[in-house]
Amino acid sequence: MRSAQRSRQETLALRQRLIGSSCKLFFSNDPVKIVKAKGQYMYDEKGRRYLDCINNVAHVGHCHPDIVKAAHEQNQLLNTNSRYLHDNLVDYAERLSKTLPEKLGIFYFLNSGSEANDLALRLARQYTKHEDVIVLDHAYHGHLTSLIDISPYKFRNLEGQKEWVHVAPVPDTYRGLYREDHEDSVIAYANEVANIIEQAQKIDRKIAAFFAESLLSVGGQIIPPAGYFQKVAEHVRKAGGVFIADEIQVGFGRVGKHFWAFQLQGEDFIPDIVTMGKPIGNGHPIACVATTKEIAEAFAATGVEYFNTFGGNPVSCAIGLAVLDVIEKEHLQTHANEVGNFLMKLLKEQKIKHPIIGDVRGSGLFIGVDLIKDQAERTPATAEAEHLVTRLKEEYILLSIDGPGRNVLKFKPPMCFNMEDAKFVVDTIDKLLTDMEKEHLNQQKTSTCST
């Protein structure tokens, strides 16, 4: 490593010259150079502290000493592949199994969420002997070619939809097909999936899987109505397919009420395959697929070995175990529930005060604030959302936007994010929205006077 630190402009110039331009920066017009982080805070090259509301990867907090210690101590002993016996691998699998329904008791370890989702796709196809996949609109499941193909968020801007991919409407009760005033949005949205299956079967297509994030992140922080997954699973399993729950963004206690986000649907819902990544290693590259014995045996029946060089190595498993320890020791799931409820309460108070806030939705520390131009049409306030997160950065708060209209503020901070942080963020949003409203009013007055 360099002993002397480059200036921000030098780093930016080198990045622009050496790194692919498709690798985007946050706040690209005025990017932040981050040199260290601790807990829920990040620090730039001048020592200025930013509150991190973006980073769900640093799940238990940036540079948590227990995670750093676990990695360091195991690195000093051994790091090798999983073809040798090692306690860390089986200890970790056993610990994860205790957080999941009993039938999801077979594990595969990998290095990224994309690898996990790709393997889930392979497992589903091998088990069902079918090819087709149903996904939700605007979904994103990873950067591998197989996953770009099942990510409308990506493929709509590339080569388009493959014949084996079927896109169902997002179960969004705020701006979707069936809204909060619909008599039964669960049945209505699930019937959309049933119709897709029926139409596919008419042209001899066979469904391998319904593949969905348990809570939609890139899709706009969407919370599917409880019972939706059960109804979808009925239709999909009847057609010979399986249900894959992508927990890469939202697992490990983030939703507060439960350890896994799919559990928000109710105790009677159990996926056939669950994928994990991002927060699982607190920034270290780990991922996992959990599935049933039957699906794993069908995968093994091919006679082709599944081997992942770094998946399940002793260091990764030591880190994974440490993350679980910290979640338990620091009661982070309960903390996420309490702080998340407090943050939701504060944001809903702002919704009453500021008409630009159309909806506040979420669970635990996974929350979306939907900004709109008008209450009647709920037109996405895209430019306003971009302006707001830029201004928040100037107030040393890092927040991002997402959704099809790029108008949803995304809260998914490290789980140590606290009540004081929540109040600070919401007070700042209140101040900035008030300023934006005054500016808009002044512009209207100027326009009226000029005419």
Keywords for this entry:
alpha/beta, 15 strands, 451 residues, 40% helix, 4-stranded mixed beta sheet, single chain, 7-stranded mixed beta sheet, globular
Can you describe this structure?
With 451 residues, the chain is α/β, with parallel strands linked by helices. It has helices spanning 8-18, 65-77, 87-97, 113-128, 145-148, 152-155, 185-202, 228-238, 293-300, 314-329, 332-353, 382-394, 419-450, and strands at 34-38, 41-44, 49-52, 106-110, 132-136, 165-168, 207-213, 242-246, 273-276, 287-291, 357-363, 366-371, 397-398, 400-402, 408-411. It contains 13 helices and 15 strands. A hairpin with a 5-residue loop joins strand 14 and strand 15 (408-411). Helix 2 runs antiparallel to helix 10. The longest helix is centred in the C-terminal third of the chain and has 32 residues, at 419-450.
Q: How many DSSP helices?
A: 13
Largest sheet: 7 strands, mixed
How are the strands of the largest sheet arranged? 4-10-9-8-7-5-6
Q: Name the helix and strand elements from N-terminus to C-terminus, one letter apiece.
A: HEEEHHEHEHHEHEHEEEHHHEEHEEEH
Q: What is the strand content?
A: 15-25%
